[in-house]
Amino acid sequence: MTALSRDDFAALDSTDKLRGLRDRFALPADVIYLDGNSLGALPKATAARVAEVVGQEWGRDLIRSWNAHGWAHLQQRIGDKIGRLIGARPGETLVADSTSVNLFKMLAAALQLRPGRRVILSESTNFPTDLYIAEGLAGFLGQGHELRALPQEAIEQAIDEGVAVVMLTHVNYRTGRMWDMARITARAHASGALMLWDLAHSAGALPLDLAGAGVDLAVGCGYKYLNGGPGAPAFLFMAEKLQNQVSPPLSGWFGHASPFAFEQHYRPAAGIMQAAVGTPPVISLAALEVGVDLMLEVCMADVRAKSVVQTSMFIALVEQELAPFGVALASPREDAQRGSQVCLSHQSAWPIMQALIARGVIGDFRSPDIMRFGFAPLYVRYSDVWEAVIQLKDILASGVWREERFHAKSLVT
Amino acid sequence: MTALSRDDFAALDSTDKLRGLRDRFALPADVIYLDGNSLGALPKATAARVAEVVGQEWGRDLIRSWNAHGWAHLQQRIGDKIGRLIGARPGETLVADSTSVNLFKMLAAALQLRPGRRVILSESTNFPTDLYIAEGLAGFLGQGHELRALPQEAIEQAIDEGVAVVMLTHVNYRTGRMWDMARITARAHASGALMLWDLAHSAGALPLDLAGAGVDLAVGCGYKYLNGGPGAPAFLFMAEKLQNQVSPPLSGWFGHASPFAFEQHYRPAAGIMQAAVGTPPVISLAALEVGVDLMLEVCMADVRAKSVVQTSMFIALVEQELAPFGVALASPREDAQRGSQVCLSHQSAWPIMQALIARGVIGDFRSPDIMRFGFAPLYVRYSDVWEAVIQLKDILASGVWREERFHAKSLVT
Fold first, then answer.
1. Residues A270 and A337 in one domain
2. Is residue B114 part of a domain?
3. Across the interface, do B140 and A252 touch by the CB < 8 Å criterion?
4. CA of A298 to nearest chain B CA: how many angstroms apart?
5. CB-based contacts of A121: which residues, under 8 Å, 6+ apart?
6. How confident is the model over A350-396, as pLDDT tens digits?
7. B141, A141: Cβ pair inside 8 Å?
8. Is residue A174 domain-shared with residue A76, that is, in the same domain?
9. Tell me, what's the ipTM?
């Protein structure tokens, strides 16, 4: 095999079906952005849409906008658009709250739907907020529920008849490892458990078929691959057959059958709106919709195809160029087991990543030793893949990362 | 007493200490906006600040903004600013989630703090989401908790030793009736109950002294008198002495002691941050901060003084002009018992309000028979008070509201 060269990456850029999409984002010229799995980039159309919501809808039309500009329907409208990206049917997806709050709602629903069962089964390396929320819910209920968090390889064996719900993140935040959604969902169902997927690192990154896999419940994030903006509202999914079988624990007025009748007692709305709680943040919702609309312009299979080539070439180039530097691959080598990110481990991951960021190649660090690189195919170029590895090599070879300035810790990593 | 005339209102405008503030809002020229108690008006500075957050902080600085632009501290920073408006100490107020979700958290805390008690006591005419959330929480816990919702006049008598928490909205959404915060809080404490105030219609409308009154818990709204924008994030207050005595039921990563250590188990943050849950909506937070900053420029006593004159003159003018038309006052006549709104009842309140809105005088309708007028002293002029009543009189006298076009119902009222 001949060595990979800069020309190989340039050639792929020139024939990339998605290459026109990059121009739809307002990326700084001096940045190679490989952190869209933490915060997606800004679509150029967002600024104008947000300005319109602020200036015209809020400023000029004021309270009338709840009807005149459809604010009252935003959560369902954007929810259904996300539903198209994840293989949900209309009426199964809602934008609301944060991923954490939505997880609380969906787990609470699962425990109600499986009253005889006490276990929430999850992966010990799941994203921490998922574990925290499950732990908090179990403790709060005080009815003997338990979060059982096990290593990834022990999950399938552990799905037994005490398990109410299997809660997994489809693509692991730290390693990029991807579960076989259809297989695990079927496995959960075979034991009578419900299946809840966290799609934070999947929605907008690869094709999903929640309906086809028979998924019961899901949650996901608006600010990663959906490019909805910092802290964008999250989404939740509840299969139609499960709706209206449970009492929402967070029974707020936006989830009421008739919020503006101001009735004294709660009556859940029909369908997915029953998972709504309070008044949603309209400006942030408007920004999210722009990101989702942009994603709907492309074919998710094309996105996935580009992502697979980018991540596999990144891995190949790392192995070609970084062999002497103590960098190890922390993501699966097999494409089908890998989401849209590649993680490398190194004992000095923190200062190395800071040195890389200082050069404008933005990935992130995950404790204790992971350098994480996300590939958002809508705006990452193949030449970015090349450049990121070459810059990383230069940092490792020169030892520049040993300088003191790269060792200071920051609050958010 | 001589009749009130247009000149009386014009004279008050000319000497109004707060008159310069109106120009800081982007109000349409053809609107008299008396619905700031539902959705506050747009501060002119908001558009530029939101554009900066979108374009520079998100678009240019991307993930780095969590540290570089202090996104990680926004919830506490804006919380403390609101704390200054409500008489809280630093570290007792947090911006987070929606009012409904915050109410769930604060009620859950109250029930944990009073483990032997089973009653959440509230007013049957409280804002419905407060009742719904309490009802949902009690049912969800399944431990014999109960929401006891009684008429306003029965509340004080009903505070007994079975009551864990008294949950009241300081200013009633439907009538504008205001509780004596210090008196009821003391009454709750005398029976060993905790006191939780919903400040949705109080924060930014009148001076509050939560610390002085010894209030335990509170929640409130960012999109009414704080002018934070549609669905702005809400706030919560927990007295310092209660913090770290409870386990948050919604135990998300933003409430963790060390969110970016990605620990497997939840450890609540010290202080008010433990009430944070998921990643907050940064764009909506930035808009809220502009509204709060503007409110901090003025003295709340001046705001209240103007509000009292406006609401009392509105009432006087209604009685002078509308006597023949079957309009009844549904708000307290005594200033000390009234918030910053006046409600009128009429059996045809809906079409009358629609006719009024069609003329650019915007109040709102509350089922079944209430016309609600909110007076936000930062931007409502005395002449608006005059004009609103005169337009209302003309609508009633002409019977124009009987036209079919004013009878169609809309989703949001």
1. no
2. yes
3. no
4. 22
5. A148, A150, A155, A158, A159, A163, A165, A166, A167, A193
6. 999 999 999 999 999 998 999 999 999 999 999 999 999 999 999 99
7. yes
8. yes
9. 0.97
